[in-house]
Amino acid sequence: MNIFYGTGVAMVTPFQADGQVDYEGLRNLIEYLIDGGVQYLVSLGTTGESATLNADERKQVWAFTAKVVKKRVNLVAGIGGNNTHEVVEQIKEFDVTGYDAILSSSPHYNKPTQEGIYQHYKAIALAAPLPVILYNVPSRTGSTVAAETTVRLARDFKNIIGIKEASGNFDLFNQLMRDKPEAFLVISGDDPVTLPMMAMGAVGVISVIGNAVPKPLSAMISLLLINDYKAAQKINASLVEFTRLMFVEGNPAGAKNALKHLGVCDEHLRLPLVPVSSKIAEAIKLETGKLS
C-alpha cells in the first residue's frame, strides 16, 4: 500500500460563525493541500473535530470531500470511537466512493486491556470494506496500543495495513519496527518527531501542521524518503517554532488560526474547543508569514 508513503494531512473541518460546516472553506482547503503537493488526505480524523459532528454531517463532509478531490489524491476516512458495536455499524454504512482506507483510533476513555484493544480492531477488520490503518494516540485515548498488539493485529488481518503512531514512545517504535511484517506501514502521527521516526523506518506522516504548510512539509518528507537527511534537517529546523505553536493551545485551534492568516478558511471551532489567544495568534501570524 505505497499510496500511503509520503505526506498525509489530517484535515481540519472549517466552520462558519454560526457553527455550520463551511463547505466553501473546505473546498479551499482541499485545493490548497493538493496544490501543496500532499499524497493523501484524511477526512474527519481527530483534527477534523469529528467528535462534534453528528452522523448526517459526517456523511455530508465525506461525500463532499470525495466529490471535490476527484481522485487527484488518495483519501482516508476517520471512523473511530469507544463503542465497538457503534464503530462497526458506522463502517458498514460508510459510502466508500472515492476513499482508499479507514483510519480508526483506539478506544478512548474506557481504557481497555490489550486484549480488549485487539478484539475491538478485530471486529473492525472483519467489517471493513477498505484497508484499515490503526491509530495509537495515548495522549487522547488514555491507553496505549502496545507494539505486541499492533504486530499481532498486523499478522492476523491482512486488511490492517499500517498504524498512525503518535505515542512518542521510541522504545515502542523500536519494538514495532523490529517485529512488524515487512509490508506493514508505520506512519508518524506526531509532527515534532516525524524526522526521527522516518530515520527508524516510518514511511511518512499524517500531519496536523500540513494543513497550513503543505509545501515545506511535503518537501521535507520527500527528502526523507530518499534518505537525504542533511537537506531534510534544514527544513525541519525551519518548522520547529511553527510546529510548537500549532499545539501550544490545542489542536486544531493553532492550525485553524494559521489557515485564517493564509486566507484559506476561518478559524471557528465547535465547543468545547475555542480559538487561540491573541498572543499566540500574533506569534502564529509571524511564523506563518516566514513559511508561506
Pick out its properties.
single chain, alpha/beta, TIM Barrel, eight-stranded parallel β-sheet, 8 strands, 13% strand
Give an overview of the whole structure.
By secondary structure, the chain is an alpha/beta fold. The chain has one domain: Alpha-Beta Barrel (TIM Barrel), CATH 3.20.20. Helix content is 47%, strand content 13%. The chain contains twelve helices and eight strands. Strands 7-6-5-4-3-2-1-8 form an eight-stranded parallel sheet. Strand 4, helix 4 and strand 5 form a beta-alpha-beta unit. Helix 3 packs parallel to helix 4, helix 10 runs antiparallel to helix 12 and helix 11 packs across helix 12. The longest helix is centred in the C-terminal third of the chain and has 19 residues. The chain is globular. It catalyses: L-aspartate 4-semialdehyde + pyruvate = (2S,4S)-4-hydroxy-2,3,4,5-tetrahydrodipicolinate + H2O + H(+). Its main location: cytoplasm. Homotetramer; dimer of dimers. It is found in: Cytoplasm. Belongs to the DapA family.
